[in-house]
Design goal:
alpha/beta; 5-stranded parallel beta sheet; 5-stranded mixed beta sheet; 11 helices
Length: 290
């Protein structure tokens, strides 16, 4: 991985919603790394709070990929990173042009469909134009989870025995392109993430678990251990959709009476690690990288 403080040429950032684009931009500003932002209309809304000039940040929609490329090339960008969530586009408003038709045709003919297939094609098209797509951890390796227990609360030996069950179930779910996360109840799979996402799964889990165990203490007394697992799929592209947890993940687990969070070391992001650890310790939840 490149040490970001040695970066001289400007980096292009395709920015969606969420904390990740904000953290990267703040880091680049702090370390005086030149950058330009192509903000996704309706998703990236932080240009003003980050004090980005109109020359540094411009907004584009799905039909303006050619304009994004021209914007980056004009400003000497050679490496780009695409980060942050995006809303599902309204295809009725997408303008059809040659570049978009070419991308859609290649996706239609590709064996790899969905978001991954589209991203591979876009990555290749950007590369042909002299723009190399990088992963976020290429610039922010500190986001990656390590193989360790981060918290004061440690999983029991019995709970550790069930880690492989949760890990395999989450990876199997990812390989099916359904989700990245599962919740275990001891050695059983309690709930699987669907296309609604992790937050929706945690809300659903909380409603069910609290019906049986109104508090974590009652669940612990009954020797029922509920644990959230988030894993990458085996052929996960490192540039997109990396399994991620943040402070809200910990708060949602607490609300659902979930005792711990297990993520994949070297392949998962922890947004603002220190805040995650502090909140997990406060709420008596273990966080483990395996």
């Amino acid at each position: 991985m490149k040490k970001s403080n040695k970066i001289k040429k400007p980096i292009g950032i395709i920015a969606g919603n969420g904390m990740l684009p904000i953290l990267l931009i703040k880091k680049f500003k702090k370390e005086k790394i030149p950058f330009f932002v192509a903000g996704i209309e309706g998703d990236f809304k932080d240009a003003e709070s980050l004090k980005l000039s109109s020359d540094t940040c411009k907004y584009y929609n799905l039909s303006q990929l050619t304009s994004v490329i021209k914007f980056f090339k004009k400003n000497g960008v050679r490496e780009i990173v695409s980060i942050g969530g995006t809303s599902r586009p309204d295809f009725k408003k997408v303008k059809i042009n040659f570049f978009n038709l070419k991308v859609l045709w290649k996706l239609f003919r590709s064996e790899k469909k969905g978001d991954d297939g589209l991203f591979v094609i876009l990555k290749n098209e950007f590369f042909k134009k002299g723009l190399e797509m990088k992963s976020l951890h290429y610039f922010m390796p500190e986001l990656l989870a390590e193989k360790k227990c981060y918290t004061k609360l440690k999983p029991t030996m019995k709970e550790k025995k069930f880690f492989e069950i949760g890990k395999k179930a989450a990876k199997k779910l990812g390989d099916a392109d359904i989700g990245q996360a599962v919740i275990t109840q001891n050695e059983n799979i309690f709930l699987r993430e669907d296309r609604g996402g992790t937050e929706a799964m945690l809300k659903k889990a909380g409603a069910i678990i609290r019906g049986f165990y109104p508090s974590r203490e009652l669940a612990d007394k009954a020797k029922e251990s509920f644990v959230l697992f988030k894993m990458k799929k085996d052929d996960q592209l490192e540039e997109i959709d990396i399994p991620t947890i943040g402070i809200n993940t910990i708060k949602q687990c607490h609300s659902a009476n979930i005792k711990g969070v297990v993520i994949e070391a070297g392949s998962s992001y922890m947004i603002e690690k220190e805040k995650i650890i502090k909140e997990a310790d406060k709420l008596n939840i273990f966080v483990v990288g395996i």
